[in-house]
Write a structure and sequence with these properties.
Alpha-Beta Plaits; six-stranded mixed sheet; four-stranded antiparallel sheet; about 25% strand; binds zinc ion
Amino acid sequence: MVEEGKEILQRKMRHAKLNFNDEELNKMQKFFELKSSQELFLKFQNGDLDIGDIKKYTEGKGIFSNIMQRFRKSPTKNVAFSETPETNLDMIVFGKDEQSMTYSYAKCCTVIPGDKIFGFITISEGIKVHNDNCPNAINLRAQYDYRVLPAKWVNEESFKNRIKIEIEGLDRMGMINDITAVISNNMNMDMKSMSIESNNGVFLGNINLEVRNRIQLDETFKQLKNINGVSRVKRM
Ligand SMILES: [Zn+2]
């Protein structure tokens, strides 16, 4: 039955001018949210999936390559994309051939140069950049593999992004001063806000920082952890 399904699919894919190869089958399997190519073959054998579904698949592929085209920056058409002011141009490139594209940052996570990142093609808002550690990353990759783009940092010098950190430790005299000293003096970073809670001798601080890159953040973490009484520092 699997073999029969395979032949049916092969024939239908040929009609739809799709190549019958592992890559295409893999994409199709993910598109229909199936666990294996066996399952895909069976669905074509028993009629659960048909030529109409192949059409949906090719249209889906078409939509995303269209979106890709639309957000790809060509030197002559730059002006057309300048209406998205919050976008940082050319700090990140996408795809195997490192294309410049118009993008914005996803709201579910934060990224700074040095973080592993990826692009995700959304239908209404173009390309969104996510952190590999984003809580949604696993789901996006598993379900919408064909919409995930490899992404890479370039020109990171002019980058600044707001990062939230949580710091916990002993509530002692001078603790806040020591923290501020590390951030403002040693690391010369902009502290955008800080809130402190204190409970039974334990303090918990939430700090918003403007960070340039991962190296700067890692060094800040190291220095904060070295402060007498600090027990934990965490990026949120
Ligand atoms: Zn995210």
